[in-house]
Amino acid sequence: MSTRIMLKNVRLSYAHVWEPQAPINGGDPKYSASLIISKADTATLKMIEEKISELLKTEGPAKFGGKVPPLGSLKLPLRDGDTERDDEAYRDSMFLNASSKTRPGIVDQNVEPIIDRDEVYSGVYANVSVELYLFNVNGNRGVACGLGNIQKLRDGEALGGGAIKAESEFAVVDDDASDFLA
């Protein structure tokens, strides 16, 4: 069992939404993104915390051998950007890392599929559906976050030194061979 929720107006970081990437510690390649949520968005943060609590209460006893362990002993998906990231993009924010073996559907504001991979990147603002679920594997236990679908809302400043489009670096070259002589 799991709980699907919609996160509105979050910022994507470490967005690997077009091609899966293998985790640093090995394992199967996955589509993934870090979802940055402003601490000022108290309604969204409260909703996430409530959904985590609800999931632990309803499914935790079965998943964790009869009772829910103390929250401090579990790995939880909602993390503090001010204490866990030395990155300006995470300042005054919380974040969730979400991943999936399945490629997310990616649409624009009109719910039309986005095909141009340059349209969705680290730094873009989006609505994102995620699936919260419990895990208990090899002594690691807690709540994880699966990446669902993405709806791009608007552009944002590219994070991590985003690529410069070739169209903005070059001018049209005419067929005069003298342009190519040095």
In brief, what are we looking at here?
The chain has 182 residues and is an alpha+beta fold. It is 16% helix and 37% strand.
What does this structure look like?
- There is one protein chain.
- By secondary structure, the protein is α+β, with helices and mostly antiparallel strands.
- 16% of the residues lie in helices and 37% in strands.
- It is built from 3 helices and 7 strands.
- The chain has a 7-stranded mixed β-sheet.
- Strand 1 and strand 2 (30-38) form a beta hairpin.
- It is elongated.
Features:
182 residues, alpha+beta, 7-stranded mixed sheet, 3 helices, 16% helix, elongated
Number of helices: 3
Helix/strand order: EEHEHEEEEH
Oligomer: single chain
The largest beta-sheet arranges its strands as: 3-4-2-1-6-7-5
Alpha-beta classification? alpha+beta
Overall average pLDDT? 91
Radius of gyration: 20 Å
Compute the number of strand runs.
Answer: 7
Main β-sheet: number of strands, strand sense, barrel status? 7 strands, mixed
Helix content: 10-25%
Explain the layout of strands and helices.
Elements (H helix, E strand, L loop, with lengths): L2 E19 L8 E9 L3 H22 L15 E2 H4 L8 E8 L5 E2 L17 E13 L2 E15 L11 H4 L13
Parallel strand pairs: 5-7
Antiparallel strand pairs: 1-2, 1-6, 2-4, 3-4, 6-7
